[in-house]
Amino acid sequence: MPDTHSTQFAAELVSLKSQISGAKLPPDLSVKALDMLSRLERMVDTGVYSAEYDRSAHYINWITHLPWGIYTQDKLDITQAASAMNASHYGMIETKDRILEYLATLKLRASQGGETSPRAPAIFLVGLVGTGKTTFAYSLANTLGRKLARIPFGGLGSARDLRGKSRLFAEAEPGAIVKAIRDAGSMNPIILLDEIDRVGVEERADIMGVLVELLDPTQNNRFLDHYLDYPLDLSQVLFVATANNTTNVATAVLDRLEIIQMPSYTDEEKTHISQDFLLPKALKDAGLLASQLTIDPAVWPVVTRPLGYDAGIRTLERTINALTRRVAREVVEGKAQTVKIDMANYKQYMKAY
After folding, report:
1. Distance of alpha carbon 228 from alpha carbon 242, whole angstroms
2. CA distance 329 to 326
3. What is the maximal distance between C-alpha atoms in the chain?
4. In this protein, which residues make up the domain named AAA+ ATPase (predicted)?
5. For residues 235 and 232, what is the distance between their CA atoms, to the nearest angstrom?
C-alpha cells in the first residue's frame, strides 16, 4: 500500500486514540476500545488491511460520540412549568396536571435528600389526529429543560431499526434508540416514540417486544443495542409515546405506559386557539402586522368548522394560513393595506369548501 495511505491511516489512529481518551467511556468499554485500537495499529504497522479496520474504526467513532455521563438538569419550578405549557397549548388540563405532578415529585424527593433522579415515567399520549400529541412532547422538553429526539414508528421496517444490527453484518449500524441518545447529547433526554400504532403487521410483535424492554423500569437500565454490544442505562430517559388509538399496541406495552387521553377540541376552544396561537403565528409567517387584518367575531364559527366537526386543529391551521396568505397578496398588489373579514366577504379569503 502506498506510503501516503499509510500516513493517512496513522493520522486516523492518532485521532481515534484522542477520541477514546477524551470520551468518558465506562471502564470496561474503554478497555474494549483500546484493544480494538491496538489491533488497528498492528494492521497499519504490517501494511495488511482488512474489512475489520473500517468496522472497528466506525465502532470507535460511534461509542466515543455518545454522551456518557452527561445529564441535563431538570427545571423544577412548578409555576414556570405551568406558564410555559399554557403559553404553548390551550386547555389539556389533565395532561398538564400529570406533568406538574411528576415535577412536584422530583422537587420533593430532591428537597428531602432522597434520590434526585428517580426513574422517569413512560407517558402515552392517545388522541385523534391534530390534537397536539407531538407538539406537546416538544413543549414538555422545553418545560423540563431536556433535550428531545423523535423516532417515527410509521417508517420502521423491523425491530433491528430500533435495536441495531450486529457488527458481523456489512453496513451494520446502531439502532434508532442509540442514534436518538447521540443526537440529543445527553443520557436523560425525552425520546418521542411517535405513532407507535402505525407499526406494520408483519413486524409488530418483534417491535413491541423491544418496546417492552425499553419501557420496563426493571429492564431499561441495561438496554442492549446489537451494534454497540454494550448495555446502555436508559432509566433516566423520559419516554413519550403517541398514538391515535390503542388497538394496534400490545397489551404488554400498554401495561408499562401511563396513558393520558388527549381531548378533542370544542369550537369554543378552537376559537381561543386560533386567536391566541394560530393567527399570530400565521400573521408572522405571512409578513403581516396584527393591525393589517381584523376578523369579525361572527366569522370565527365558519373558520373553526369549515367542513363540519374535526377533533384536531390541523384543518383549522391550514385555513388560517391560507387566509393570511390571501391578505398578504392583496397588500403586495396594492389592493389594500388593511383588511377586515366579515360575513359578507369571508368566502374571498377562505377555501371554497
Report:
1. 27
2. 5
3. 85
4. 119-263
5. 9
Q: Which triple of cell numbers denotes residue 147?
A: 433535550
Cα–Cα distance for residue pair 272/122, rounded to 1 Å:
30
Q: Is 204 helix (H, G, I), strand (E, B) or coil?
A: helix
31: which 3 cell numbers?
478497555
Taking the whole predicted model, whether its pTM rises above 0.85 is answered as: no
Pairing of strands 190-194, 223-225: unpaired
Give the three cell numbers for residue 88. Answer: 404553548
Q: Are 136 and 199 in contact (CB under 8 A)?
A: no
pLDDT digits (tens, 9 = 90+) for 87-115: 877 877 877 888 888 788 877 877 776 55
Q: Kindly tell me if the per-residue pLDDT of 208 is higher than 50.
A: yes
Write down the residue that cell numbers 433491528 correspond to: 160
| Cβ contacts of 217 within 8 Å, gap of 6 or more | 119, 235
Residue 262: closest CA among 210, 331, 327, 312: 312
Handedness of CA 135, 138, 142, 144 (dihedral sign): positive
Residues linked to residue 239 through DSSP beta bridges, in sequence order: 191
- Residue among 126, 91, 136, 127 at smallest CA distance from 312: 127
Indicate the pairing of strand 230-232 with strand 123-126: unpaired
Query: DSSP readout, 143-181?
Result: HHT--EEEEEGGG--STHHHH---TTSTT----HHHHHH
Q: Work out the angle between the directed axes of helices 51-64 and 3-22 (0-180°, nearest 10).
A: 30
SS3 content of the chain, % helix, strand, coil (to 5): 55, 10, 35
pLDDT class for 131, splitting at 50, 70, 90? confident
